[in-house]
Fold this sequence. Notes:
This protein is α/β, with parallel strands linked by helices. The chain is 40% helix and 24% strand. The protein starts with a helix and ends with a helix.
Amino acid sequence: xxxxxLLDSQEQASAADPRDARVEARNDDSAGAAARPxxxxxxxxxxxxxxxxxxxxxxxxxxxxxRGEFISLLGRSGCGKxxxxxxxxxxxxxxxxxxxxxxxxxxxxANRDSEALSKFGLVFQDPNLFPWxxxxxxxxxxxxLRGVAKKARRARAEELCDLLGLSGFERSYPRELSGxxxxxxxxxxALSYDPRILLMDEPFGALDAMTRDKMNLELQSISxxxxxxxxxxxxxxxxxxxxxxxVVLLSPRPGRIRSVVPVTFExxxxxxxxxDSSFQEVVRTLRHELDEEGV
Length: 295
Ligand SMILES: Nc1ncnc2c1ncn2[C@@H]1O[C@H](COP(=O)(O)OP(=O)(O)OP(=O)(O)O)[C@@H](O)[C@H]1O
Ligand SMILES: [Mg+2]
């Protein structure tokens, strides 16, 4: 029930989104034209300057992500996955190239486009909860920062606790939760303001295999329920394939897109599907490519 309410509120939120009106208007202008991708990286390079010299972290990255699409980003350590995600999130600027969010450029000179930024929810490997706030207050913090009234914040936090299996822990403190529960709280916090785009950097990297499986199932159902666009960084080939519509494989030094592998299995996917021969075939293809990179 609660999930349905969340779904309804998401639908209302997206129906009210002015961007939809713009997309419709454009489609009316040019009948049959496809809607713009939700996210685009166009000829993106990133070079870090340090005292030791310069590191070319990313080179000529071109990537379009459609609305509601789930992209897994896979590659060996140091190949630029986090850098790519931080560039998508507007946390760092590309050295060259353009980042587009829908029909808006993310950067205008040295300034970021606040409307584009408001579409992002970010989840990192460490849940980064405030230890002195309850789970409910942690989840609702982005809403507080946006000036949402206390009653509405509480209602939204309760909805999200229900969606993420944290009901009954609203008043608990982070230290009273397991690692998997804390990570779910971090996802709930990212979802609190209905982001259209979820950017996740190895969010389940620190979890044991069974908890990770459970979190993968939950993330799959969240992405189906909310229709959010997701870019998900992982080191696990199986996790990447299980979740993704497309797996983007990066090769290192400098980070480039080596290949993009579509994953067409129907959703929702069951964990058992990981042992199917067709699933294993995709995993083998990706492992072979990673091996060629020397991993
Ligand atoms: N702030 C920074 N300053 C200087 N160099 C950086 C910075 N951030 C990343 N780099 C360099 O950019 C390259 C890519 O790093 P990045 O963190 O994006 O890799 P990654 O694929 O996320 O690795 P991992 O899988 O280990 O998390 C590395 O060579 C790293 O040293
Ligand atoms: Mg990283």
